[in-house]
Amino acid sequence: MADKVILLSSWVSAFGLRVQIALAEKEVDYEFREENLFDKSPLLLELNPVHKKIPVLIHNGKPVCESSVIIQYIDEVWTNGPSLLPQDPLQRANARFWADFVDKMIYQCGSRVWKNKGDAQAAAKKELIGILKQLEGELGEKPFFGGETLGYVDIVLVPFSSWFYTYETFGGFSIEKECPKLLAWVRRCNERESVSKVLPDRHKVYERTCGLKKRLGLE
Amino acid sequence: MAPEKAVVLLDERVSPFGQRVRIALAEKGVEHEYQEEDLANKSPLLLKSNPVYKKIPVLIHDGKPICESLIIVQYIDEVWVRGSPLLPSNPYERANARFWADFVDKKIYDSGARMLKYTGQAHEEAKEEFIESLKLLEGELQDETYFGGENFGLVDIAFVPFTTWFYTFEVYGNFSIEKECPKLVAWGKRCMERESVSKSLQDPHVVYELLAYLLKKKYGKV
């Protein structure tokens, strides 16, 4: 019996985009269902009653929630092709650590850059640059965080690159200037179809963020 | 047989996150050196081993550090394959275990801490969220022996240290956890029958004294 895979997500969710990249890396056929985050579908609310959030992967009718949990699930179920997580337990722990770092730091800090003004924005901007520099340090001279090939940390981080233009425009700084190696890594990731076909255009993301700011009354 | 490589745990006795790691090491019978950290005066080893967060627990295995308690527990499970596995072998059940362990951190610890710290409206909101989160977790447990079913596992390890905080939550929240979530309390007692748990956790009244002291010192909360 063929696998039936559905992904409840949104084109503008960095967490959902990660899952799309992981599915593409494993060449998994799936149906993508765009969720309106201001009017969530009954299916989403039924399958993720705890958090009521996207992404949700539905594999043969069974839901898997939380993007980092989903990616590890995809890696363990579809064992064709290279592993997304390292085989060695220490390297695997390290990959989980940095993916968790991305999760804890980037979204909330980046959001503070575009949501705030004045001192609060300046502080968020400084913090974001610090976070990106730490990641750049972890990358080092490797082509990818996963080493020679795209891995778990790359997949978890790269969707946020579509938000770089938004952070830069609101924050008034250049990420390329602060973290050139990270930008080179973004370009390398985009040489892979699994990434380039999935990531949204940065201007679309910026426009959407402007609209969201208006809607939230943050202008 | 080659000697096992050295295992060192940098920890702080009352940390629930450190307790998770101690429980996992005990479950697997891993001999290790315990190093108590003074969090007001962190050791050079801790700062070098966890430069990103500078926090405990840190497990150092053969000189290499592993940080973040749930990541450490999974590492222990993957390296010391003797005894009962801490995660299920089925990928879907494994994803479910990871989901609920993450839930303990994101929802229960977060709302519980806010309930302790704040007063007034913020306190009431945190308390409501905390009780709701406990009930969701109890819903996941249902009538199983452990969250891992018959096997004591990741979710049990993630949550059980917080059972010693129940008394504190009850005093500050003015409610009874046994009344709201009797199955969780029964599960907590079952876990305490395991030596790995009873030897790693602190007495709830000791926890209360310490938390009361910290809350007063840091937030002026009485």
TrEMBL record, chain A:
GO terms for molecular function: glutathione transferase activity. The keyword Ribonucleoprotein does not apply. InterPro entries: Glutathione-S-Trfase_C-like (IPR010987), Glutathione-S-Trfase_C_sf (IPR036282), Glutathione_S-Trfase (IPR040079), Glutathione_S-Trfase_N (IPR004045), GST_C_Tau (IPR045074), Omega/Tau-like (IPR045073), Thioredoxin-like_sf (IPR036249). Gene3D superfamilies: 1.20.1050.10, Glutaredoxin (3.40.30.10). This is Glutathione S-transferase. Is involved in the conjugation of reduced glutathione to a wide number of exogenous and endogenous hydrophobic electrophiles. Conjugation of reduced glutathione to a wide number of exogenous and endogenous hydrophobic electrophiles. GO terms for biological process: glutathione metabolic process. One of its GO terms (cellular component) is cytosol. Its EC number is 2.5.1.18. It catalyses: RX + glutathione = an S-substituted glutathione + a halide anion + H(+). It is found in: Cytoplasm, Cytosol. Belongs to the GST superfamily. The keyword Lipoprotein does not apply. Residues 88-216 form the GST C-terminal domain. Residues 3-82 form the GST N-terminal domain. Residues 1-24 form the signal peptide. SUPFAM superfamilies: GST C-terminal domain-like, Thioredoxin-like. Its main location: cytoplasm. It is an enzyme of class 2 (transferase). Keywords: Cytoplasm, Signal, Transferase.
Automatic annotation (TrEMBL), chain B:
GO terms for cellular component: cytoplasm. Its EC number is 2.5.1.18. The keyword Transferase applies. GO terms for biological process: glutathione metabolic process. Signal peptide: none annotated. It catalyses: RX + glutathione = an S-substituted glutathione + a halide anion + H(+). One of its GO terms (molecular function) is glutathione transferase activity. It comes from the Eukaryota. Residues 5-84 form the GST N-terminal domain. Conjugation of reduced glutathione to a wide number of exogenous and endogenous hydrophobic electrophiles. PANTHER family: GLUTATHIONE S-TRANSFERASE U19 (PTHR11260:SF781), GLUTATHIONE S-TRANSFERASE, GST, SUPERFAMILY, GST DOMAIN CONTAINING (PTHR11260). This is Probable glutathione S-transferase GSTU1. It comes from Phoenix dactylifera (Date palm).
